[in-house]
Design a protein that fits this description.
The protein has a five-stranded parallel sheet, covered by helices on one side. The protein has a five-stranded parallel sheet with strand order 8-15-9-10-11, covered by helices on one side. The protein folds into three domains: 6-182 and 305-426, FAD/NAD(P)-binding domain (3-Layer(bba) Sandwich), CATH 3.50.50; 191-300, FAD/NAD(P)-binding domain, CATH 3.50.50.60; 430-471, no CATH class. The N and C termini lie far apart (54 Å). Helix 7 (349-365) packs parallel to helix 9. The protein is globular, with a radius of gyration of 23 Å. It has helices spanning 23-35, 99-102, 119-130, 191-197, 226-235, 257-261, 349-365, 373-378, 393-406, 428-445, 464-471; strands spanning 15-19, 40-44, 137-138, 141-149, 152-159, 165-170, 172-175, 202-204, 219-222, 243-246, 268-271, 274-278, 283-286, 291-292, 297-300, 326-327, 331-332, 338-340. The chain is α/β, with parallel strands linked by helices. The protein contains eleven helices and 18 strands.
């Protein structure tokens, strides 16, 4: 709750709940702990270990490439079954961000890590980052309901192994459950009938694990963002003919930069948007009027919906494409004791989560003033794409939150001469790398198996200091 002191009103928070122990939730826990200002910090996660989506789910047998039974265009209103907590991580997943940019500010990835690490390396990294806050974690605990009360918030939970339920009061809640759990499948004419008549043919990237299940099949991949690019490249090595990649026409400002940088391939053929599924002939009709016949598999790489089924009050847009009413993609403008981490897209998630966590922790400890009510409302964004924050917006966002955090009141108990835990701040070299990482990823991928030995940007020909000299910016 805030007292009434104009622009300098401050929050009085003592007990904080964090929902999720992935990259965002762990960042929140680390910065909240560093404030030394809260009697209770409790981080809930339904998985048995920290790491969030980086905890790979094997999916063997019939679970591999799980069916999609039709369009899914609105956020799920029910909780994920504890027996079916599925990560979207697949067997050969590597990051599409160099770890030198991806890491938390004060904790680099282990030495000898490949420049774009495999998913198991990221999981191990996050679990190392979780060690200082292990005592704050309530694992195998599903949050079933979060309710606003007159005195703050109540969080209803269920401990999955025992079935024990609890209702716990808090002053503030930080939602850090990510947005890669509720698959978006577009509403395309005939899709439901097609999926019903041809079970096992239609799936979503969330359930993709390995290319071998598509061997000698005619495959369409729908979508050409990060997962679509990677999955289509993998399937292209084993499928019958070139893999067909279907994508809507869109303006150049939203084109995926990795796709724009990639070299043309004889094993991948771009096709227009699918406008109709034809169940009787196992075909699809495209927006240019042509028909592709004898389709053996369709993989929707069409992203995910924002969904928070545990919140008593609905907090997403009806189509799940954005979270309305957020100040700076972060705080509920009408109640800043509710915060959402990791909402921005097309960003480098770990440092963004750290920058957000640093400011929210200082805000909840009372070291930073709360923005005025007018300012809270003024920066809310609405509409599809409201949270897209590609370069250079993400650099500016990280540095803006850094500046706010370092303006906090000093506390002699805290590290760095009372400043507290320092969030990331991106200088020219980080911004230079951020701008180029799509091209860096393509150069890395083109090395094939040799890429595992690439640990530094310079090994791929990307040298910031050399670039500066070429620009004449330094002697």
């Amino acid at each position: 709750m805030a007292d009434s002191q104009g622009a300098q009103r401050r929050l009085k928070v003592d007990r904080v709940a964090v929902i999720g122990a992935g990259a965002c939730g762990l960042a929140a826990a680390r910065y909240l702990q560093a404030e030394q200002a809260f009697s209770l910090i409790q981080v809930f996660d339904q998985r048995p270990v920290a790491g969030g989506l980086w905890n790979y789910t094997p999916l063997e047998g019939e679970d591999v490439n799980q069916d999609v039974d039709g369009p899914h265009t609105t956020p799920s209103a029910t909780l994920e079954s504890p027996m079916r907590i599925v990560s979207p991580v697949y067997d050969l997943l590597e990051t599409n961000i160099p770890h030198t940019l991806m890491n938390y500010a004060e904790q680099p990835f282990p030495e000898k890590s490949a420049l774009f690490p495999k998913h198991v390396v990221v999981k191990e990294y996050l679990q190392q980052c979780a060690e200082p806050v292990q005592a704050l974690l309530s694992l195998e605990t599903q949050v079933s309901k979060v309710t606003k009360t007159d005195s703050g918030w109540t969080v209803d939970t269920r401990h999955l192994p025992s079935g024990t339920t609890s209702t716990i009061p808090f002053d503030a809640v930080i939602v850090a459950n990510g947005h890669y759990s509720d698959p978006f499948v577009p509403d395309i004419k005939g899709l439901s009938t097609f999926a019903e008549q041809h079970p096992g043919v239609v799936t979503h990237a969330k359930f993709y694990r390995r290319a071998e299940t598509f061997a000698n099949k005619k495959v369409i991949v729908v979508g050409n963002s990060a997962s679509g690019i990677d999955i289509s490249a993998q399937i292209a090595t084993v499928c019958r003919g070139p893999v067909l990649v279907s994508e809507k026409e869109k303006d150049t400002s939203t084109v995926n930069p990795i796709a724009a940088t990639a070299e043309p391939s004889s094993t991948i053929r771009q096709i227009p948007e699918i406008i109709e599924f034809l169940a009787n002939t196992r075909s699809v009709r495209l927006s240019d009027g042509t028909v592709e016949n004898d389709i053996d598999a369709v993989v929707f790489c069409t992203g995910y919906l924002y969904t928070f089924p545990f919140l008593a009050e609905k907090c997403t847009s009806p189509d799940g494409s954005f979270v309305p009413g957020l100040y700076d993609h972060l705080l509920r403008a009408d109640d800043p004791t509710l915060a959402f981490l990791g909402i921005p897209q097309r960003v480098v998630p770990f440092p963004v989560a750290e920058a957000q966590s640093a400011w929210v922790a200082r805000l909840y400890s009372g070291r930073c003033p709360l923005p005025s009510k007018e300012e809270l409302v003024a920066t809310t964004l609405e509409g599809r794409g409201a949270h897209n924050m590609g370069f250079p917006k993400d650099v500016a966002y990280i540095n803006k939150l850094y500046d706010r955090s370092l303006r906090a009141e000093r506390d002699d108990r805290l590290v760095h001469d009372g400043i507290g835990k320092i969030p990331p701040c991106w200088g020219p070299e980080q911004a230079w790398t951020r701008e180029r990482f799509p091209a860096i990823k393509v150069a890395f991928r083109n090395l094939g198996e040799e890429r595992e030995h690439v640990e530094r940007l310079e090994q791929l020909g990307f040298d910031f200091n050399a670039w500066q000299r070429e620009q004449g910016e330094i002697e």
